[in-house]
Amino acid sequence: MFAVLPRLSQPCLFHELNRLRAREILKYSSSGPYSIKHCDNKSSPYCFLSTISTFNNINKTLLNSNGSGIVRASVRAQSELSINKKTYVCDDFTNVTPKILSHLNRNLYVQQRHPLCLVKQKIVNYMHDNYRSKYHTPRFAVVEQLDPVVTLKDNFDSLLVPADHVSRARSDSYYINRDYMLRAHTSAHQSNLIKMGLDHFLVVGDVYRRDEIDRSHYPVFHQMEGVNLIDNVMLDKVTSTGGGGTPGHGGIKMFESNGERNKEKQAVHTRDIVQFCEADLKHCLFGMAKALFGANIEYRWVDCYFPFTHPSWELEVMFNGEWMEVLGCGIMEQQILHEAGITDKVGWAFRPRPERLAMVLYGIPDIRTFWSQDSGFLHQFKNATPDSVVRFREVSKKPPCTNDLSFWLPGGGEEEDGGYNSNDFYDLVRDIGGHNVEQVNLIDDFVNKKTGRRSHSYRIVYRHMDKVLTNEEVNVIHEQIRTGAAEKLGVTLR
Fold first, then answer.
1. What residues pair up with 38 in beta bridges, in sequence order?
2. Where do the FDX-ACB domain residues begin and end (predicted)?
3. DSSP 8-state assignment for residue 436
4. Using N-to-C axis directions, what is the helix angle for 422-433 and 471-489, rounded to 10°?
């Protein structure tokens, strides 16, 4: 008999909630890992609660007593989480939810005939065909199914992510505790693999980020990290022969003293090595784009910023009349290599998004589709190979139901001041609505000039991929979201 309760000031302390009225218990939220160990109602029908991750069922069960009964409950803060047979101590940073943890070990990218596996294999085939060792074996090792729980050092510090970078915020990442988190990118494994002696590798894995809700965003998605380190031996070979299709560059010096960092290079790199690495990297990725989308694909390079590469670029392709980012890349920060024990090599890295690529390749319009276990989805790829031309056909187009939700933010108006963040609301909607929710859009954001209070209005589009939702079903879910927002986020409904 369990239910999730909020974080308490002393996580390991037992709390006796005696003579607590049923409606009063609804003040608690499900933002932390806490459980009701016993719940009975002496003056009304007994209150037995089943295991849940939100307060939806609690609300329904307790309200059946009309709020008049007395609830006796012994509440204990659940101080540990068990993930992949490892135990982690919870603390004030813990914000993972059962809904998110349920995605662990699905390993879509290793499931034969799954579109994400097909895209992965298409990229692997390209890299293996075009980059061979002197023994004619594939140069790039493929590393996958690594533990998604990583240290903050691996996810941030080893990649030079600044201490104040937005990606470190609890509103943007999923934390197990202050020391461990669900990886936000496959780059979290980069430094350790380099320390192990790998110079050329591809890392494939699922990554976790708190994000908005729409047809192209999901809190769990996949990345495919590619890293290529270049030493003088390889540089001499490539520049003298143009190996791998790269135009020859002779007499290149890698490093310089007293150099200056600017938008074009790092301080320790010579302009020649930067120009070579950029040409080598873009040649590789342009070839990959042609292998994926065909020789006539329309593409462009966009300058961008990543903490772990400089200079950095994004590759965008034209899809349905719009530019869509399919990967980020750049020349690796030399400090990352130095801290991994590498002093005589430079490197470049790239990181494609298999979902984005599969959506373009197969015409899949909704990112939720990749997690579907509906036979109508997987059946379309049952005979597919990485080289097959498959156009996804939606099993059926279900009609959407749209509801709006407006509320005043807590505090004086500013999000940080009131402790409110939009990603908290998106997580709440995901936990309650699950795959019934297709999109959540902020449609109005204003501050009342008289009171100084800030208001948000969201439009929630309900549409399940496999069944038609009735208005009655949507209304129940929407009311649970309204109630949850008020109780768990401290907002005032309008």
1. 74
2. 396-494
3. G
4. 140
CA 360 – CA 351 distance, rounded (Å): 17
Taking alpha carbons only, the member of 61, 19, 70, 16 closest to residue 43 is 70
Q: Report the pLDDT value the prediction gives residue 178, as an integer from 0 to 100.
A: 96
Q: What is the pLDDT of residue 281?
A: 97
Using the CB atoms, write b or e for 205-232: b if 16+ within 10 Å.
bbbbbbbebebeebbbbbbbbbbbbbee
Q: SS3 for 147?
A: coil
Full DSSP string of 81-109: EEETTEEEE--TT----HHHHTTTT--GG
d(CA 226, CA 189) in angstroms, rounded, equals 11
Domains in the chain: ranges and CATH: 4-78 (no CATH), 95-368 (3.30.930.10), 401-493 (3.30.70.380)
- Whether the CB-CB separation of 281 and 329 falls below 8 Å is answered with yes
Three-state DSSP class for 343?
coil
The interaxial angle of helices 354-362 and 115-130, nearest 10 deg, is: 100
Predicted local distance difference test score (pLDDT) of residue 72: 32
The C-alpha R_g of the chain, in whole angstroms, comes to 26
Smallest CA-to-CA distance from 79 within 68, 71, 87 is with 87
Residue count of the chain, please give it: 494
Tokens 């590469």 -> residue: 309
d(CA 388, CA 363): 13
Q: 444: number of CA atoms within 13 Å, CB side?
A: 13
Q: Which of 135, 145, 136, 338 is nearest to 254 (CA)?
A: 338
Nearest 5 degrees, angle CA 175-CA 181-CA 186?
135
**Residue segments in the chain with a per-residue pLDDT below the cut of 70:** 1-78, 238-250, 395-397, 412-418
Q: Residue 137 to residues 22, 128, 238: CA-CA distances in angstroms?
A: 67, 8, 17
Which residue's structure tokens are 């914000």?
95
One-letter-per-residue 3-state SS of 320-374: CCEEEEEEEEEEECHHHHHHCCCCCCEEEEEEECHHHHHHHHHCCCCHHHHHCCC
Q: What tokens does 466 get?
A: 């496999």
What are the pLDDT digits (tens) for 366-375? Answer: 898 999 887 7
Please say whether the beta carbons of 40 and 72 come within 8 A: yes
Give the pairing of strands 322-332 and 149-151: unpaired
CA angle at 456 for the pair 454 and 461, rounded to the nearest 5°? 175
Q: CA distances (Å), 402 to each of 212, 462, 469, in order? A: 17, 6, 11
Q: How many angstroms separate the CA atoms of 249 and 42, rounded?
A: 84
Token pair in block for residue 245? 């299709």
- 127: part of which helix (H) or strand (E)? helix 115-130
pTM: 0.73
* Location of structure tokens 């002093």: 343
